[in-house]
Write a structure and sequence with these properties.
Blueprint lengths: L2 H27 L15 E8 L5 E7 L2 E7 L4 E8 L9
Antiparallel strand pairs: 1-2, 2-3, 3-4
């Protein structure tokens, strides 16, 4: 392999790594993939939704036994914002 081939390989490799890093940053920044389904199988606990607050913090809405709790998650701590939230009732009469 000649020197031009080596530089071409390294350039392509760096380009692919930059694309992966950029996509990862975009997904974290704009909250893609931050939603989780309620526990499948009728369990007592589940994650209803995530919402990013800033790059390091996000809100999580947790449901346990039909009652929802709002929690602020950060790298260093978790803070309960509100507890005892009643989930919205589905209106099946329409």
């Amino acid at each position: 392999m000649d020197i031009i081939g080596i530089f071409r390989f390294l350039g392509a490799f760096a380009f692919v790594l930059a694309l992966i890093a950029g996509l990862s940053w975009l997904l974290r920044r704009y909250g893609m993939g931050m939603r989780a389904a309620t526990g499948i199988g009728g369990g007592r606990i589940g994650v209803v939704e995530f919402a990013p607050v800033d790059p390091k913090r996000r809100l999580a809405l947790i449901r346990r036994d039909g009652v929802e709790h709002l929690i602020l998650l950060s790298p260093t701590r978790e803070t309960v914002i509100e507890t005892g939230i009643q989930p919205p009732q589905d209106d099946n009469s329409k």
